């Protein structure tokens, strides 16, 4: 492999590994803040123990997520120096804001939350975890606005052989970046919801502290179902934006080769017996693809043949990843709906099959998130900045394939070790359960009774 492919592979491995931690941090911070708010408002120690238990898992994930994220910015200078030189004035602005504002707030107030138990007031302690949660999501906002600019560049001019920002507000209000932010963030909430559901299911299967894990189960179920609804809603709007600004990516997502008006969505295709290189559509929903792309049934969907061959994204990985991601989304929606129903009926413990499925489904939203990024980033190729700069032009000219291979091996080994540590610590403390006995979860009136 050449330097370009090796650099792409290295960034893919490091960014995908980093994004294992990000979505759980986004969602679990909100859930822990909600739990502590319930404790402050009701005085019920159950919610205090829930905030501490799930907060401990949040901290493990947060710490490793920070470590793995730092190396990504270094790669822009090491492996993609030409990219940084060409668009650094634009791309660096949101990253600088993320570091100096959002990450600063996270770092300060997570320290207050960790070390402030019984040292600051309950209200201020609750506010500190809300600031952490908001700052974590703000951090995602600035990073995704930067990525959104790469997907759909706005507010810039090419001057002296470089891209220079002329309209900061255009970047901040870039529809592509904002839709990407909302879709990514609520997808992270789904990860956290099924993380809570899966661990709660494991304990409920063992009849371990149902007074603690049934409320956790219900909280995760409601949060998950609401988040999945928002995933579907934001995903629909995001698909419309992709069809408008990146028609080649949209065509690859649906494997559309010929331009069509009123295009149908193919659900099932089989090999053409007369031409082994073609497929025959067997099951198609008429005009559905045009409606999804433009919210009108007569919209024209551009086919891949309308684009130069060297400007088409790889079709098969984008097409399969998109379909797998959508299928997982509907599967998780069904699970969340069933979980809400059984939790409000008070019969969750009896549905052992559902509990087992939830336990083994913990990795599913993680995988769906990764597939979504594959669609976004592979579908953008061959561009590193869509329509402005190709990936092959953004790679550093002074590095050799051997240097990239060396750092790739180093990162892979280091991240592999960190992954093992993360899984070990999360599994250890998740199995251990909350500190204290069941009596400590009861209200004062219940203890006296």
Explained architecture:
It is globular and about 60 Å long. It has 15 helices and 8 strands. By secondary structure, it is mostly helical. Mean pLDDT is 83; it is low at 437-449. It folds into 2 domains: 3-252 and 306-448, no CATH class; 260-301, no CATH class. Helix 1 packs antiparallel against helix 4 (122-151) and helix 7 packs antiparallel against helix 10. 72% of the residues lie in helices and 8% in strands. The chain has helices spanning 3-42, 45-78, 81-115, 122-151, 168-172, 175-205, 210-245, 247-254, 288-294, 315-345, 352-360, 363-378, 391-394, 401-432, 444-448, and strands at 156-159, 162-165, 260-261, 265-272, 275-285, 300-301, 383-385, 389-390. The strands form 4 sheets. It has a two-stranded antiparallel sheet with strand order 1-2. It has a two-stranded antiparallel ribbon with strand order 3-6.
Question: Summarize this, please?
Answer:
With 449 residues, the protein is mostly helical. The protein contains 15 helices and eight strands.
List the helices and strands and how they pair.
Blueprint lengths: L2 H40 L2 H34 L2 H35 L6 H30 L4 E4 L2 E4 L2 H5 L2 H31 L4 H36 L1 H8 L5 E2 L3 E8 L2 E11 L2 H7 L5 E2 L13 H31 L6 H9 L2 H16 L4 E3 L3 E2 H4 L6 H32 L11 H5 L1
Antiparallel strand pairs: 1-2, 3-6, 4-5, 7-8
| Mean of residue pLDDT values | 83
How would you describe the shape? Answer: globular
What share of the residues lie within helices?
over 70%
**Quaternary organization:** single chain
Neighbour order of strands in the largest sheet:
1-2
Count of DSSP strands = 8
Compressed to H and E, one letter per element, the order equals HHHHEEHHHHEEEHEHHHEEHHH
The domain count comes to: 2
* Structural class designation: mainly alpha
- Biggest sheet features: 2 strands, antiparallel
Radius of gyration: 24 Å
Q: Measure the end-to-end span.
A: 72 Å
Show unreliable segments: 437-449
